[in-house]
Design a protein that fits this description.
Blueprint (H helix, E strand, L loop, with lengths): L12 H18 L19 H24 L12 E3 L9 E3 L3 H4 L1 E5 L3 E6 L10 E3 L4 E3 L6 E3 L4 E3 L8 E6 L5 E9 L18 E2 L1
Antiparallel strand pairs: 1-10, 2-3, 3-4, 4-9, 4-11, 5-6, 6-7, 7-8, 9-10
The chain binds FE2/S2 (inorganic) cluster.
Length: 207
């Protein structure tokens, strides 16, 4: 069709196509994700130090356990269990004349038998309380601490010991056995009465 001016206006297909293409293009561009800015590399969190954590917990548990045990201990009796001071040592006929040391370790005594009596010497030096040794070859007791010497009946004769060694209470039970009580001691302090002769009180057994 002719234009009024005589010019024939034909649609510019190329331009139109180009326009269509230009219109459609933004849709294609919108589908592409925008760049999110500069990429920052993230580093992983440092690993937890498991060993240090275990040590801390073990310390706390140990502390709490100790406190709990101390709490329990508070309710327990604070008694010292010592061996009895009263015990049997067999029959008088079990002993030969002289000094018998078989009860020294267990009861800290020596059994002393003479021709007319049996008595029990408490094995404690009267100087400062050490336990003397029986020297059979020398027939005497010798204290290793400061050198006090006692004869076979526990009578002091040398060194700093101030008096003879004490003797324990003895008696015969219904079976005929010797019963010793180291809580009841007989003494012979220098210049004072000799308690070793108190047979009726249990200082010795007559034979
Ligand atoms: S304790 Fe025995 S001599 Fe001193």
């Amino acid at each position: 069709m002719d234009s009024p001016s005589g010019d024939v206006t034909t649609p510019d297909r190329t331009t139109s196509a180009t326009s269509s293409s230009a219109v459609a293009k933004p849709a294609t561009t919108a589908a592409v994700p925008k760049a999110a800015g500069p990429i920052v590399e993230s580093t992983p969190d440092p690993p937890v130090n498991q060993m240090r954590r275990r040590i801390v917990w073990a310390s706390i548990a140990g502390f709490l356990t100790t406190c709990f045990l101390m709490f329990l201990r508070f309710f327990l009796p604070r008694a010292i269990f010592e061996p009895s001071t009263v015990f049997k040592i067999g029959f008088p006929s079990d002993y030969a004349l002289g000094v018998d040391t078989k009860w020294q370790q267990q009861y800290r005594i020596w059994v002393d038998k003479t021709s007319d009596r049996l008595f029990v010497v408490y094995a404690r030096c009267t100087h400062l309380g050490c336990t003397p040794d029986w020297k059979a070859s020398e027939n005497k007791f010798k204290c290793p601490c400061h050198g006090s010497g006692y004869d076979s009946e526990g009578i002091n004769f040398e060194g700093p010991a101030p008096r003879p060694m004490d003797r324990a209470h003895v008696e015969i039970d219904p079976e005929g056995q010797i019963v010793v009580d180291t809580n009841r001691l007989f003494k012979w302090p220098k210049g004072e009465r000799n308690e070793f002769e108190d047979m009726d009180k249990g200082a010795y057994l007559p034979l």
